[in-house]
Amino acid sequence: FWLILSAKENLPNNYAHMNIRSVAVHSGGVKYADSAGGFSYEDSGKLLSVTSNRFIHCFNVRILVFIENNDSTFCYEGTVSILELKQSSMMQRLAGWMPTAIRGDQSISDLAISLAVHQLEDDTFIFALCQDHKLRMWSLKHQMCLLVTDMLDYMPAGRGEVKASPAQAHKLRLFFSSSIGLCLAIYLAVPKRSQFCVLQLVASENNRYSLDHISTLFSTQETLVDFVLTATDIWAVWLDNDNQTVAKYISFEHNTTGTWNQVFVQPSPEEEVHVGEDQDPREIYLDVLFSPLRFTASAIIKALQIYKRGTERYSDLSWEELKKEVTVTVENELQGSVTEYEFCQEDYRLLQVEFWSKFYACCLQYQDVLSTPLALHISPATAMVCILKKVTSPSLTAGRLHLVEVQKVFPSVISGGLLLDSEMSHDILQLVQCLRMVNESLPEDMAYDMEKALEDLLSPEKVSEKVLEGLLASDNGNVIQDIANKLQDINNPIVAINMLLRELDLETDPLRVRISLSQLYGSSVAASLIGQAVCQTAMTRTLLCRDLLILQQLYLRIGNNVSSAQLLQLQQDFIPRCSNLLCTYHLLKQMSLTLSSSVPLDILNADLQHLSVLELSDSTTPTSRRSVLNPQTVVELFYQNVARKAIMSQIFSQQDVEGNQTMLHWPQMISSVLTLFCQFLWPSNPSFLFPECLMVNCQYEQLQECVRLVGPWCQVNVGSYRFVLGHCYLANGEGQKALQCFQEAAAEVDKEEFLMKLTGSDEEAATATTPRLLYYNKVLRLLEDIGLPELVVNLATLAISEAVNDERCQAALWTRIFKHHLDLGHNSQAYEALMQNPDSSRQLDCLRQLVVVLCERAQLRDLVQFSFVNLHDEVVSIIESRARAVDLMTHNYYELLYAFHINRHNYRKAGTVMFEYGMRLGREVRTLRGLQKQVNCYLAALSCLRLVHPDYAWIVQPSSGAAYERPGTSPKRNYDGEFAADPVSQQIDILELKDLEKEYVLARSRLTLAQQEPPSAAIAGGANSQEMVALLVQTGLFDTALTLCQTFNLSLTPVFEGLTFKCIKLQCKGDRDQTEVWNWLAANQLPTVITTKESSATDEAWRLLAHYLEKYPSQNAQYHCCVINKLLSHGVPVPDWLINAYKEVDAAALLRLYLNYDQLESAAELVLGYVDALLGKGHQYFGIEVCSLTTITI
């Protein structure tokens, strides 16, 4: 027996053995070569129970194995008692144990073939299903038979035929619950009429019992292995004709249709292994054979014994040793068959595939035998369904991956307050040992290179790759190989690395504490101790992260015991995370080693005065608590001024919430404080207290270094870091750099806590509507307080774009811009700011100020030259009138107007002009040259609108026709001579960028068609999109037609039908006169060029069709459907590649197509293939996903 424990428990693997004396079975009874069963504890479904998630799975072995701490409590010795059960009228043995000669009866019809035992109240009942098809119930207390029921009474037909032959494979199962009582399920194994009968035991007075019929369910034709009865369902496991496991269940109460529900079990390994031309067959086959959950060690060992045709035993081999033995065996067999001394590479590769496929077939055969199901078990408490097979073992994963001895005891590992299971403990220990080996093998120069790379902000991933290459190049003592070998001993390296990264990451794994506070640590000694602890922790973990990063790079090269998805996760997730952790701990180490600066009092007061403009109310006044002889680090400064108070507040809040008054001693307290303090220092956490503390304490050099170290990789508080860096630049007199930082920080002002606090107490909040405007106002006040008018003008100009819908803010900003431009002597810019001010009163004040200042400065020329009247609209109107009045091909007024708008950056107007130009060309000049100019016009219009802000990237469609109203034209009259009424104003159409793109694509298609067939230029000039698709398909310009269809959201079906028809014509026509065909094929871009053989035009057309089907997928492969339909309608055979691609998506539709065109043979073949796919054979060809189900699932 094997006791299977939940993965949540962690008990030492001490196995206690109980020998059970075997009991002889009657020689006439049915015997099974292999059998299994299962039991569960009553409280196995309770979380707090001692037996939570424990199950006993038994096999036909003589060992009882328990995993417990104390062997003596579960080891028993004794004898087996034998009690004969007799009927009251005669001495008949229940199992027919007495020989026939002694009994004097030639009939053994009452021989039991299936037994079940259940205890009810103070009696134990034994149910026996016998060969005479009768069910007998025995009382162990009274030692008599209480009930006999003929099960053939429940068969609807054929009772006489069944009664004539003794039963051999009937099965009996019980289920009991307090709500429904005791139920029995009997499987009657009758050829072609097998059925399940569900009965309920009913007790009456005087200890009389009867059976009530609940349901009869008919079985499928597979061979039943085992079944289990539950309160509502019957679960069963069969073997089909291909010896594949089939699991199903059915409800015996509410299932009126009698349909069994299929359960997808773990599929068998693939029958064939695909080896690419550039792949090594040996490596591919080894990866498949020794990958998890595919082949068991038993199957590989048996296959190895048969392959070597010997009697050697391999029970003591480890997983790696077995892999080496397989490699040596197959390679020796290959070398022994070689009779020539020289082979070309391709011949040797084919020979490798032959021998490896032979060994793979042996493994596949034995794997199928060992995967045969033996029994089915369901835990009543947890409803867990288990299929018990021959290959089941107590430690399934470890046993299959590494053949670990069952007596081996794995040490426990405490990680993050959680007790890990033994396998994870082993992995963590192996990983740490590998890290230690990496640390010991890393030379000092390489360690320095890693440290220097962190200082220079180089990518840790790339540097670790170079370090690894250096280690591999200088590996004289095979240290790296030893590390690689130890890495292979890790069962689940991805989980182990993830566990280690999670414990290192203070961002994703917040502190798990259950503490109460005994005292506060606020003295300088405590601050020094905390600072040194942070430094030591950071240094240790920096080395750990460095070694782990190198180790992961090594694992990327040699890791072959994990899947490709896990390697991808390692490369894209774990390595970047480890790199960030390395940079983070390097930052903590550097900060804990950086001393704080002593700031002169006058500079300190001046900086504090500037900072008062920001109104950071939570900022504390900087204090100095250290003498010169005992300098203070910035980490200690932060702890004493800010962090200590926050840490103690958090500890107090946790104490109140948890209600835990237990006093903690020092190790617990210092650990808690250190972890919380490191979280406050952690740059990826939302808290920004540490940089803010450095800024308030005027530690600008240290703050710049901190920002420099986090800049390349930290994605949290990006805006806040840019702001404090800008303040550092201001303190150092680098105004332009500061302005750039302030602008970059504006994008995050409404996302980060520090910037929101910065804008939360602004006196100008009443005049600003957005957080970003509040931020700009605060920064502008800071720049004005310092005295930097140029920066004020630049930032205010930028802020105006944020106040598009706020005239009050715009007026204030333009007034501020005007004032500082005028102070700087920028008269022209001041005038522009004056004209832009939307507030008339402020504009009047600024104008008055401008006149006074310019008069005082005697700068009258500038005052006179300012143009106060805007004539731009008049100039534009004149050019537009001339452009619409003259011939398009002889004058270029449109181009002049276009250049005029471009020069003034009025891109939308420029785009409107060029679009109107193109429209007129399309109506009036339908020649090849006209189409070329039209394409250029639409392209220029597109370029203009793409330079405009997306909100304004639209134009008004110019009116159609040439009836533009021009100055000097006579009024129009009707046929009576009266003035004609003004035309009714039509609806204005707005053209967006996507509309212009459509017109451009349509014009480009017309030009392409005209270039291919010049006579079609006149027809193409007026064709719409659908007409153009037909013309393009007819001409053979399929690439252009597809582009046009996608642009106008048209169906691609006409394109595929047209190309299919051309393929049909080519196939029927043959290779005669294909010059025209090659011309239209050359106009379409094929994916690749076939150089290995001569290709005909027909082949290229089919390749083009296949390329389009792959490049343009559709829902339910409707394009595949239309192509197949076209081919079948013309009686052309459908290519295999097309059938394979379509049946993987929609086999039902393909079947309908076959039936519609009377392709009965192809339809039958498709149906048979689909049935095989449902049974697990070739399911990938029909797009069917088969769920893998492990042998035992806990």
Output the keywords:
single chain; 1194 residues; alpha+beta; Methylamine Dehydrogenase, Chain H; 4-stranded antiparallel sheet; 11% strand; extended
How are the SSEs placed, and which strands pair?
Layout: E1 2-5, E2 15-16, E3 36-40, E4 54-59, E5 66-67, H1 100-103, E6 112-120, E7 123-130, E8 134-139, E9 144-150, H2 159-163, E10 171-177, E11 181-188, E12 195-203, E13 209-218, E14 223-229, E15 233-239, E16 245-251, E17 261-263, H3 281-289, H4 297-308, H5 319-337, H6 345-370, E18 373-378, E19 385-389, H7 396-402, E20 414-415, E21 418-419, H8 422-441, H9 444-455, H10 460-473, H11 479-487, H12 493-504, H13 524-558, H14 564-592, H15 601-612, H16 634-658, H17 666-681, H18 689-696, H19 700-710, H20 718-731, H21 735-745, H22 753-758, H23 771-786, H24 789-800, H25 807-824, H26 827-836, H27 840-857, H28 860-865, H29 872-885, H30 893-903, H31 907-924, H32 928-946, E22 954-956, E23 990-992, H33 993-1012, H34 1017-1020, H35 1025-1035, H36 1038-1047, H37 1053-1069, H38 1075-1082, H39 1097-1111, H40 1118-1129, H41 1136-1145, H42 1147-1156, H43 1160-1174
Antiparallel strand pairs: 1-4, 2-5, 3-4, 6-7, 7-8, 8-9, 10-11, 11-12, 12-13, 14-15, 15-16, 16-17, 18-19, 20-21, 22-23
Domain NUP160 helical: 421-638
Domain NUP160 middle TPR: 682-947
Pfam families: Beta-prop_Nup120_160 (PF11715), NUP160_helical (PF23345), TPR_NUP160_120_M (PF23354), TPR_Nup160_C (PF23347)
